[in-house]
Design brief:
four-stranded antiparallel β-sheet; single chain; about 30% strand; 3 domains; elongated; Wheat Germ Agglutinin (Isolectin 2), domain 1; alpha+beta; 5 helices; about 550 residues; Methylamine Dehydrogenase, Chain H
């Protein structure tokens, strides 16, 4: 006990005895720590005694009672969860369960000791190590980000150089055309100037002759009108137009005459683990063969018959096209009489092939116009439009298939045989479905070979996919196919009721087999990248999200 902790309190006039020696007290000295009245001698004795307490011992100081001055609380009321003194127990907490506050104190001290020990021995070292590791990660990350920023700046220069190369080429073409055209115009102008000088000389000579009275001079005159009347007209020089366009904010294009350049943006989407059906709607067409999106809420569909319909998501009919087919043709017909294939161009106009009439037509503003007529013995079947505006058309002669690239009616490319002069596509009764990938590859589903065949834009073989990695029960039976913004190829598998997704190098990624796709056939994308799948037997279209 420390003398400073004792408080001398003036007591009442009644005789108060020292609770240690029982002697009367002249002045009341009350020890708050001991909760007793003591005389001066006993106080001194207690102070001297407390000095002998070892340093390992702790003198507990009980809390002063909030309600009873000069009293310390040595108990804790369990019901009220408050410290109590002896008067509290008598007056306010009778019958309550009381706990020794010193035991509570000791238990808390033990809890504090355990917590302190665990923090010091386990948590603090662990946190310190994590802090050091994090410091190392910060240093490592900063280094990597420095390298990343350097690489970005490097690529910035590469990309800028690529753009500069494009526009340097455009400037070079422009300068070359300008020099060529100006040379032509200046040469033409030089001829005109010479002709003008010659005419002025002739006029002068004729005027002199008119003044002459010499018969021989006049009779020797020869007219030059025939020469002068054939005046070369002003040359109409064709100056190439600069054309620019953006395709769904994913591609920038620029053209100057025959020169074309493209900058393509690739999305960073990734495949979903589980695909989701966003919508299902009927088309009223059974069996359903073709599906091509014509916006976000409608699509063109076709069947075995002679009608192409544009239907909305709600199932209502929006438009109808009825090609004039030559039913008297005795030409070989592809399996299942697939006389019509459909696609849309960059402007969203319908393009369709007319097998028997050997034509490909454009349908716009309610009217059809023939844009391609194929050679004799070759009939148009599968087709697609390309990013450059060309049309890839599968031509079929009853046994063999080839793919022809048309620019207008002009044939720009034929794909039929490989570098070893062997047919690229299998022979048989099936036509091809065709799609162009964003990297320029030409993709075709060849049902005669049960394979997906991919060539580069020059027609050189890249790879074939036979469906083996997908591990399906039935043989791979490819039908319609499309490509997405990730350059992935999606193809319907008729016999296995699923879709195969392959990357641009032919690596199998996954199957979409979790959307109840019974006999999938038609396939298309809307502008948001959702996949529209036509079901052959039910005539329904399912809109599927397979990336995020």
């Amino acid at each position: 006990m420390n003398r400073d902790t004792s408080t001398a309190i003036s007591c009442s006039q009644k005789v108060i005895k020292c609770e240690a020696c029982n002697n009367p007290l002249k002045n009341c000295n009350f020890c708050n720590s001991c909760q007793v009245s003591l005389c001066k001698e006993c106080i001194n004795k207690r102070v001297e005694k407390n000095k002998s307490i070892t340093n390992n011992e702790i003198w507990i100081i009980f809390p002063e009672c909030e309600y009873h001055p000069h009293h310390r609380c040595e108990g804790q009321c369990q019901q009220c969860d408050v410290p109590v003194c002896i008067k509290c127990i008598i007056k306010s907490h009778q019958g309550h369960t009381l706990l020794d506050i010193e035991n509570i104190y000791n238990d808390k001290k033990e809890e504090i000791q355990k917590e302190t020990q665990e923090i010091k021995s386990k948590l603090l070292p662990k946190c310190t190590k994590y802090n050091e590791d994090t410091d190392g990660e910060i240093t490592k990350s900063m280094g990597k980000y420095v390298e990343l920023e350097k690489e970005i700046e490097k690529q910035r220069k590469v990309w800028h150089q690529e753009v500069d190369n494009i526009f340097n080429k455009l400037s070079s073409i422009t300068q070359s055309k300008k020099v060529e055209h100006l040379d032509v115009l200046k040469s033409h102008q030089s001829k005109l100037k010479n002709l003008i000088a010659d005419m002025n000389e002739t006029v002068k000579e004729n005027q002199e002759m008119l003044k002459s009275n010499k018969v021989s001079q006049v009779t020797s005159f020869n007219s030059r009108l025939k020469k002068y009347r054939d005046i070369p007209e002003v040359i109409d020089v064709f100056i190439p137009l600069l054309k620019t366009n953006a395709v769904q904010e994913r591609e920038l294009g620029i053209e100057l005459g025959e020169y074309k350049a493209r900058l393509t943006w690739t999305s960073m989407k990734k495949l979903l683990v589980k695909s989701r059906v966003i919508a299902t709607f009927p088309t009223g067409v059974k069996p359903l063969l073709r599906v091509v999106c014509a916006g976000d809420d409608k699509c063109w569909v076709s069947e075995k018959g002679r009608t192409i319909r544009c239907v909305e998501k709600l199932g209502s009919l929006h438009d109808t096209v009825t090609p004039t087919l030559n039913s008297s043709s005795d030409s070989p017909v592809p399996k299942e009489e697939e006389l019509i294939c459909i696609s849309v161009n960059k402007q969203g106009d319908l393009i369709y092939s007319d097998y028997n009439n050997r034509t490909v037509s454009l349908y716009r503003h309610g009217r059809s116009e023939v844009v391609i007529t194929t050679p004799n013995d070759w009939k148009p079947a599968g087709l697609c439009t390309t990013r450059s505006g060309d049309i890839l058309v599968n031509l079929y002669n009853g046994d063999q298939n080839k793919i022809v690239r048309y620019q207008g009616e002009k044939v720009k490319q034929e794909i039929f045989k490989d570098e070893n002069d062997k047919p690229i596509y299998g022979s048989g009764e099936y036509m091809l479905f065709v799609a162009e990938n964003s990297n320029g590859d030409i993709c075709a589903s060849d049902r005669n070979s049960d394979a997906l065949v991919v060539l580069d834009k020059t027609g050189r073989f890249r790879f074939q996919y036979y469906g083996t990695p997908a591990k399906r029960k039935e043989t791979f039976n490819p039908n319609e196919l499309v490509t997405d913004s990730l350059s992935q190829i999606i193809v319907t598998d008729w016999t296995n009721d699923c879709l195969h997704i392959i990357d641009h190098d032919g690596q199998f990624l996954r199957c979409v087999d979790d959307c109840d796709l019974s006999r999938p056939r038609g396939l298309s994308f809307d502008s948001e990248g959702k996949l529209w799948v036509g079901l052959y037997e039910t005539g329904e279209v399912k809109v599927i999200q397979y990336t995020e």
